[in-house]
Fold these 3 entries.
Entry 1:
Amino acid sequence: MIRKATLLAVLSAALFAPMVAATPSTAATSASRQTVTVSLASITPDVPTSQTDEIKFTGTVRNDTGAPTPAQRVRLRYTPQRLTDRASMAAYAADQNTATLPGNVSASSAMDIPPLAAGEQARWEFTATPVQLNYRSFGVYPIAIDVAQYGVPVYAQRTFLTYAPPAVPKPPRNKLAIALPVIDQPHRATDGSMFVDDKLSQSVAGRGRLADLARVAQVAPKTVTWFFEPGLLDDLDVMKSGYTVKTKDGEESQPASAAAGAWLTSMRTSLASSPVVAVPYADPDVTGMAHRGLDVQPNRAIQLAGQKAGELLGREVKTNVNWPPSGRLDPDALDLLSVSDAKVDRVLLDPGNLPPQPPVTFTPDAASTLDSVNGPVTALVADPQLSALFEPKGATSVLLSTQRFIAETAMISAEQGQTSPRSLVIAPSRRWDPNPALVSALLKAAGRLPWLQMTTLESIKPSKASVPRAGLAYTDADRKDELSGKYLKRVKETWEKAQLTAEITTTKTRSSFDAAVLRLSSSAWRSSSRTGRALTKQVSAAVDDRLGKVTITGAGSDRPRKSLAGSDGVVPISVKNSTGAQISLYVDVQSNNRKLLQVKEQNERLTIGVGQSGTVPVPMNATGNGDATVTVQLRTVDGKAYGEPVRLTIRTTGYTGIASVIVGAALTVMLAAVVTRVLRRRSERKLARAAKNREVSTA
């Protein structure tokens, strides 16, 4: 009989081989091979606590073969052996081989499904109890629901069931902090109302990404910590008053966005009592900046973040916690953050950035301590598997994700060697696209599980449960992910030019281009450098335009020359201020031909009012005749060059030497005339006496 049964099973498997479902990975590339699917809709209760709890399983079977199927049977498969660790859980979930399903098939927890037409589905349900499944102690147990035809499984859905009877001692209640990001990429170049795209209008409406984040915020517990990128809030604030979108053909005006205003209001209301942190404005690539000599910009990004987020959310927003791009930084970036005005003393990191040393087989405590140039910094390391459940990569269901979350956290509390509570941190990727229903279910589960205690991110600190860490691990691959040196060089040049527009003013206010230049350094351009370069060109052009509003008058092609009236004279240099603010500067003039023209050094500061011109008299000395050139450079009061230098031509005449020749010649002519007159008079006197003598002798 055994041989006949075995032979029948083999023949049945061969007969129905075309109907056998592919594994999920294969199904993703060849949907035609997937046949009959079974889905789980509910497991109630999801955490049984006594031997007699009736666990109800419900779901559906669907025929996707394209042809009618024979009668089938849906069954519960189980094993009384608990999973031993999280690694075995991961291996079980990834294994899609029907031959390795749990070995026990429940005879009572099953349901027959009649033949299904192509595309037809049928609902199923059955029950089981822990005693029927032979569960005896707290733990995570693998289960599966399979669809069998003639006793042969053709498809199965794996999941976990956590059994939590009263235990002595009780499992430790681990602290759980959840960080949820609200981070996007910049959508403007400068601070005006011109947007480079209209993606935000789609994101805040309907089922858009930001709209979904707002839905999550409405139901999230007050212990969840929210990380906002203030540049996003800034963009939405502009949109609510009307804006313009840059298009291929020019510009397109958009009306005021009611959705943007409603989103901001919703976030302010929903998170009024929740901890909120601002990442640096525009989410700059801090590690890349630290490696390229842009040391000032991160501090300014943190300052601007606190200012903008506080203003637009209407509350105090902390900036002493940093969540770096990709969750990774190195000691250089850590030092840069620690010495900022906000004194960043807490960082949220990816587990690969701060691995345990030596490696451990259990789940390490999330908190650790790092050394920086400004003292100790608390490092919080996110749990990768728990974080991944908040944004699953492949197709899954809310139920399966919730069951996995329950099982993972239960397994952590049951790990061998744990005697005191540990801290756990969940942090999905920073630009995630959440499923509100899934996130809501996971948050609710976290709040009711007896082995978890929801807490804020700020409350997690290093403790006795902390494990030694290897220090910040920052690889060559991490360096390659940064914004390139060539790209950041242009950003740095634009920043330096932009600072001049503020340094030249008498009030020394902040540059109005700070936010614009920080947008250029956004980590979003790591994967989109082309967009970043386009924005850099726009911002650089805007900065040049502002610099050009302070001009040296009379230096154009229409007035190419100035004259020096004498060998020692004064040439006036005039500067016009069209910036809209009072300015103060120096005019630096240098001769390009010192043998022909010398320029005396000037130290007189020139202050020019709004819309006015100022003139500096520049003493010069010419040693000959001809044209000489000078270079005129405007400088800030700190001596920095402002704008491009201007060349002026000075026409010299050397009047002093010429005058000497003229005076000498005049004296010679005058002396000759006097001598001639004297000789003439003497001759006339002699002739008169001779004539008189002749008259006397004749008489």
Note: Confidence is low (pLDDT under 50) at residues 1-32, 655-675, 695-699.
Entry 2:
Amino acid sequence: MRLDVNLLDYALIAIYFATVLAIGFAARKRISSSLDFFLAGRGLPAWITGLAFVSANLGAIEILGMAAQGVQYGAMTVHYYWIGAVPAMVFLGIVMMPFYYRSKVRSVPEFLRRRFNGATQLLNAIMFAVAQVLIAGVNLYALALVIEALLGWPLVVSVVVSAVIVLSYITLGGLSSAIYNEVLQFFVILAGLIPLTVLGLIKVGGISGLFEKVRQSSLGEAGLHTWANVNGDNPMQAHWVGIVFGLGFVLSFGYWTTNFAEVQRALSARNTNAARLTPIIAAYPKIFIPLVTVLPGLIALVLFNGWGQGQDYNNAIPLLMRDLLPNGVLGIAVTGLLASFMAGMAANISGFNTVFTNDIWQAHLRPDQEDRHYLLVGRIATVAGVAMGVGTAFIAAGYSNIMNYLQALFSFFNAPLFATFIVGLFWRRMTPWAGFWGLLAGTLAAFVSYFSYKAGLVDFGTELNASFWGAGVAFAVDVVVSVVVTLVTTSKPVEELRGLVYGLSAVNLEDDALAGDARWYRSPVLLGIGAVVLAALAYGVIL
């Protein structure tokens, strides 16, 4: 599947790569401490961190994966956005970011150490590090697919070259480089996907033509609806309980509120209000992103044949690029894809190097070293994370739909973490060892649920639905174990929980508000409510 690129397309790609590296070199001059490297010195405005927040998620997984979901499951894929993202992003901004930001933690595992104990921190840090390496492999694999289509290089060569490209600017400028590149990448991604969607709609006769062709496809009328037949008789074979509880609550809130690869962007904001606004600003473009991810998937469904029977679902976007885009526009689209993959992998690797350095190396292996020691370890961890991502890329290659693989990972690592976090946040009685054993039990329950499905012991219908139910099981087991362990162990003194538990404010909390923060358009609550209402209204179009 070679793309018919010419000199103009290559020139556009080369200009983009030169810009990315230039940003990395410019950001390197501002790195003088580990705080600069890992959290951009906590000095960025909300609009920068907000765009970086959504761009970090708009990676290979989002673009190739959601288009693949659109082909396989139809309009129900929008659940990942309107119920599976926006409410959780708003909750993160309004409720949870004040705890993260004002506690001055550098990561989610560090927050768990303060709320619970070092064992809980280490367990979560190891789980997070493994998850980020696996997810980085997904982004790297998807990037390699595009390079393979573009240049005809073998997959192995494409994976290695892609890894070197991403490694270069993260190692140079740390999180500052990653964030500023993510802002650039957000606009480059849209510049590539919007023409693809418009030309695809023209090809199929507009929205009405697309809907009619979907009705005649293998998905049928069910491919155009979101909440119709949510009793299991739909392309996802999903029940409304799995959608609402498994995806809308456990998987969604577990990912958006505890995934440090995302939270890290908000922690780099200049004050508490900017940190709270970060995920809420990101929620608004998130509502409309299905127009350039899911919609192209539906277009690919009706334009190409053989899906799931020799035709890989992950090829939806590359096939559309090959057949619809003229040269020049093709170069922009390829650049947009490359930008998206790099943004996603940069988020994974910057999260990995921070957690490894702060929560494993500094907290448990080599404490009390000079700051420059940890800055060096962070750079070494960046190289190691990318190297391991190269290896895990070939795990992702075994899935015809990388989104199914990703959702399984989220059910393993994010769902139980959210249970531990949310119970500990609102129940001050929860004990340190309840945090550890609840998290461990919930994670094991997710693995047992998923592999029971793979072994044929339990029938969830589809692999995606198995992840929904697995997330729910992990959450429930985590909560039950946490309650039981709490009843037989000792809680922390109230004074140690101030600023870490809802209703217990820190005594020495400083007001870091800036001029203008009180204006209505900087209100996290008002803007958050607006985003949730807009997402709910969006469902009215394709109920």
Note: The domain at 7-542 is CATH 1.20.1730.10 (Sodium/glucose cotransporter).
Entry 3:
Amino acid sequence: MTSPFRDDAALAPPAGCPAHRTGDPGHRDQAVLDAFDDLGPDEPALEDLPVAELRRLYGPAAEADPAGLYEQLRADYGEVAPVLLHGDLPAWLVLGHTSNLTVMRTPSRFSRDSRRWTAFREGRVAADSPLMPVIAWQPLCVFADGAEHRRLRGAVTDGLNGTDRRGVRRFVTRYTAELVEEFGALGRAELVSRFAEHLPMLVMTQLVGMPEEYGPRLVEAARDLMKGTETAIASNDHVVASLRRTVERKRDDPGPDLCTRLLRHPAGLTDEEVLEHLRVVLLAANETTVNLIADTLKMILTDERFRAHLSGGHMTVPDALDQVLWDAPPMSLVAGRWATGDTVLGGRRIRAGDMLLLGLAAGNVDPVVRPDLARPLHGNRSHLSFGSGPHECPGQDIGRAIAETGIDCLLTLLPDLRLAVPESELTWTSAWLSRHLVELPVEFTPREHLPKAVAAAPSVPSIPATPATPTVPTTPAAVPPPAEPLEAAEPVRPVEPVEPVEADRGPAVPGPRPGWWDTLTGWLRR
């Protein structure tokens, strides 16, 4: 979906809004400063807090139970909590649903330009810090505001909109069949390493315009980079080198792919700008979609509600995706935003240059919007997983298409798929940005041969680009640029809960599913 906030949108203030009671354009800023002053001396600034009293978002203790850490921080500090990043650098973690939306939708107060960070300006961020690949300023729309953001994001949005959505599904169908062919005869598989970690990158390399053989190494490098390990810098270098070769080749040999569309866009992106935007699209799409596929498969195979619904035909894979996007967002945190001036958020004193982390996982379970976490949220997409405002994920449609089509095709090919170990034995590993299911062992009836329609599926050629349409966005940062500040985000109403459905005690796996050809033609009609 596209962002409802455009950079040129006329924003009407609510009736009686105190920030608009006069015609003075600086009145709102003064109101913010007054609120800042009203906090008084008892509310210290971030840099004044003793490091010894702050909790780290990295290291074994934090990674053992990130959800528990978020809830403890919420109990201690409320909507916005002070925390420590790698190198014990202080930052604010935004925990509230409404506060997250305020930060996302108000670029005049919370910029994406990381060069504003006080720690950068004071030389306190080591060159080899694991934070650098994620937050070091680069010439791309993710770190831009205003007119430059509109120029760069417009090129990315147009490039992604030029992707044939039916072509995406054909790629997903082809690669799902190839991956299942590798383990189908065994009657067992581990779906994280054999399926979820491979499918998104195989599809994205085709959409970007990279050779297929780049895929396996890029899978390893992307995962290592997002974990923020000691080898994150080297992994980032590998990704950049692969993309640089692709850009050089596409200059001489253009094709119907994202790289070529960015190179030819009227915004006039330089080769370096093209490379950096391809990097952010590739990494964000891979990381988020891997997690979305793994967690959705786990939920389908273990959750009583979903087993019952899928068996009865009432629950769809899109419904399962929505629930996972609420309960286990592909990215737990997004770094970051930087305060453009002294301000107040969630009752905390935020100073110019402070770093804020968007707590997507914490915001999605905010008791204000989800008083009962056990109630399902079928069809409700007001979660924070794709962001909001000017930097809302532009590739979310493609990410959802890869996950939905891949899971649906997998369940069609292996209709009696079932978990091979007790659910209690499943484990996760966490890093400061995300949480990953380590393994998902499954069993099924061995398949010596795929159905004829799948086995005969031709190697899919490049998909011709279609004219860009400004209504289709796709993953983590591109939507029609909304613009400058909204006033504080409107209060979020508690999500209307849906009564949980009593799980039947029937089969523990999905029941009979439509034939492969019926499923495929259904996709193509969408």
Note: Residues 196 and 290 are 5 Å apart (CA to CA).
